Amino acid sequence: MSLHAQSLTCIRQDRLIFNAVDLSLNPGEILWVKGRNGSGKTSLLRILACLLKPATGIVSWNGTDIEEDPEHYKENLQYVGHQDALKMAMSARENLEFWSDYTGNSTVDQALDAFQLQPIADHPTQILSAGQKKRSNLARLIACPAPLWILDEPVSSLDTDYIGLFKDLLEKHVRNGGMALLATHQDLSLSRVRQLDLNQISEVAR
Amino acid sequence: MRSFLALLKRDMLLAYRQGSALTMTLSFFVIAVTLFPLGVGPELNVLARIGPGVLWVGALLACLLTLDRIFQADFEDGTLEQLMLGPLSIEFIVLAKIIAHWVMSVLPLIAITPILAISLNVHADGIWAMIFSLLIGSPVLSLIGAVGAALTVAMRRGGVLLSLLVLPLYIPVLIFGVASVEAAVALMPMAPHLMLLGGLSLGALVVCPFAAAAALRLAVE
Fold first, then answer.
1. In this structure, are residues A152 and A114 in contact, taking their beta carbons and an 8 Å threshold?
2. Predicted TM-score (pTM) of this structure
């Protein structure tokens, strides 16, 4: 189980975002994607999550180009983006139950426990705070387990305690053979972390 | 199949909980149809003659009101991209959302059509024909509407463009829908018109999910 990307180039509306990005990720590893605003962190993560096509380059999962078998690759990844993907008219529990039904998993209570959401699990999502919504979104990582986590600003809106909780869950995931790619402006002081600085790549590209 | 049913169930639950869309659609349908007797006068013969057309146009316009909601909310809150990363292909995601739209927004319109048809003095045979023609033809409204909704999903205030895109494509359904009711009222066979409506529905069922899926892929990128 491994993720490799070779010579990835991203062009959006005729603007070069980044050029010739190579990366690799193996079980037990975390790759922290760093960079200024606009350096292409989100674009890179969306390319790796099959949500955006690169202008050039190849992403391979276990040595196979993900374009050849995207369904198999998607089964192995969980992506958390900027938006919470929560339905305001449903509770946190109902949202998670939907995602676990949709992906064929059944670990909703475990996910609610992991992110300490049980006390607010049945409240309508629209009355939750931004941090509570973020935790409800992150709980999808446990409710729908997958070895590869791709996380875009996962700790925005979280307070210090919950950042610590998230960090523990991330490190546990990696210790258990998972892998994670995350873009964040905050240094989480994670162990087993490698860094990819898109600022340097962008400078070279320009 | 489990994912398809989960999505269908969730969309229907959301439509039920956010009942304003249904209330708005039904109210618009009732008000639009009620305005015609006030505009053209209370002569029963005139109302009976224009009734089928008025009902079909009213249903078609009422349906337009909810089309932009098929994908908009999921696109804006990030649910759509999460759905696309799940086990269901985009074409089936589109199909589940179209079915939920038809059941929650169009079926209630069909349910109140007989009452409005009576108020327009439509003949009893015409009322049955109206129900059959709507049941067979109205899926086209959701199917073609979904393509328009997918094409305009990333646009702010895309509602007007959506109407302009979709309304011309509704013309064949309107023609055969009204023709089937008029045939029934004139005691002529309405089966050919219903079969044409069925053909349109099946054709749209084959083409529209793929077209809408292609538009959504572009929108998400």
1. no
2. 0.89
